[in-house]
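User: Run a structure prediction on this.
Assistant: Running it now.
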Amino acid sequence: EVDLEERLHEVDLRSDLDIPDVPPPTDSTPEILKRALSGLSARWKNWWIRGILSLAMIFGFFLIIYLGSFMLMLLVLSIQVKCYHEIITIGYRVYHSYDLPWFRSLSWYFLLCVNYFFYGETVADYFATFVQRREQLQFLIRYHRFISFALYLTGFCMFVLSLVKKHYRLQFYMFAWTHVTLLITVTQSHLVIQNLFEGMIWFLVPISSVICNDITAYIFGFFFGRTPLIKLSPKKTWEGFIGGFFSTVVFGFIFSYFLAQHQYFVCPVEYNSETNRFVTECEPSELFQMKKYSVPPLLQAVLGWETVNMYPFQMHSFALSTFASLIGPFGGFFASGFKRAFKIKDFADTIPGHGGIMDRFDCQYLMATFVHVYITSFIRGPNPSKLLKQLLILQPEQQLSVYKTLKSHLVEKGILQPSLRG
């Protein structure tokens, strides 16, 4: 057993040594910032660059929020494509010397196929009325899954035809690389958009909580960090981790209170086929109506309050903030391990002081999955509006059958009188 372990260790070590060095990313910091910060040490220079670029990104994010939900969807799609590009490019750089045929073309082809499938599902679910008015779209929606499978099968056959002797293992490895990257980027970004349709607050609070945790953990770690947190990320400290947790919980609670007051943020995003616009108008659900809660006896002595008024959603913000600050960082640790495996510092040099887009959104994808699972498990109930849209695309005889079944059910429950016609 000892000999076997030693041989396996030697194989792992040899595999790591066989990985060629990836060229380090170039410094993309604007010249004006380089000159302005030239007198500072490298540590403080990086702090200021990260701070200035973080504020710029936050300002741009709020500008896109102001422009509406459609622009947010385009932003999510753009980030997805860029993150996919950064991960695939690492694979291409590492194994470029092998000149694998069709690798890049097939990678982008599979991205188009998977996006076609997921976004087609979204159109079928949320734009049923719009689709019903256009015959050519009805065909695409009706046979959407068959078309998606046919497109994927075409790429699969192209991959098999591209196999080259002596490079089989490497090609299958890169095939798996592409599919895992698709799973991480496309699937998760689809969940982000699904969360957005539930109401912009389900999009903004989780994303902002991750951003807040990232910033506050960095600040606490920068000024007070002494105790290393994890070997994968030597700069992460327990002080930053704990400080980020408490800061994120407080931020999520306050930010949720502000957003819960506005229909624009709490109403589900729906497409109005008459105006060809996304609308966010509704009667806010109970989650976003102020309620009075009794303060636990232990806290009454500290706060001096017996009751407190708050939105029920603020209670859910604790769960979102806790996940963002305790579990979300493990997405970053995972990304750190990936970068160490391929001897790179950052995924790319897109954002000065931050690295690539994937460096900033490694935790967001994990958060998106949690929010989607949380909504489906604890929040979402039957959606009459969505059900009505699906009924409207049925054939008249199918609609009549549903009507008769529903009428019979309501008569049995005593809600309708048996003599009622209609």
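Strands lie at 228-230, 233-237, 270-272, 277-279, 291-294, 307-310.
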